[in-house]
Specification:
Radius of gyration: 25 Å
Helix content: 10-25%
Pfam families: Phage_tail_terminator_8
CATH class of the domain at 4-61 and 76-104 and 111-122: Alpha Beta
Number of strands: 7
Amino acid sequence: MEDMTTAVAEELAKWWPEMTIYRENQKNGFAAPSFYVHRRPTTREPDVIGHDHELRTYQMEVLYTPPLDEDGTNADIDAVRDQMLDCLHIVGGKYRVTNWNDAVSDDTLVVTFDLPIHVAYEQHPIYQGRLDYTGDAKDGKD
């Protein structure tokens, strides 16, 4: 299974190649401008596809810290929000973004979204090699 945090960070890097992207919280705060990507709780439930599938929903959060400019901070946040809305539809080329929610808190853009994924359980079949049997049919006895 692919690391969803890495997949989101790589998707952001495609659209904002010069932007610093963090996966870990920073003790001294984040450089500006930057993104911070982290995973929130994951849910799972049986899938309607069949008994050997489940639906996992990876809840993601992306924080955007704008440049340290007193003038136009909201304008920068609004521009990045609109760009994210335009660019983040599919993550990793196969995971559709759903349940998008964004808000501004303490001059930081906070974006949350889900990545629902249908997962097939890994099958561990029991392989039967040769069966040695001693009995009437094998020994030619009736």
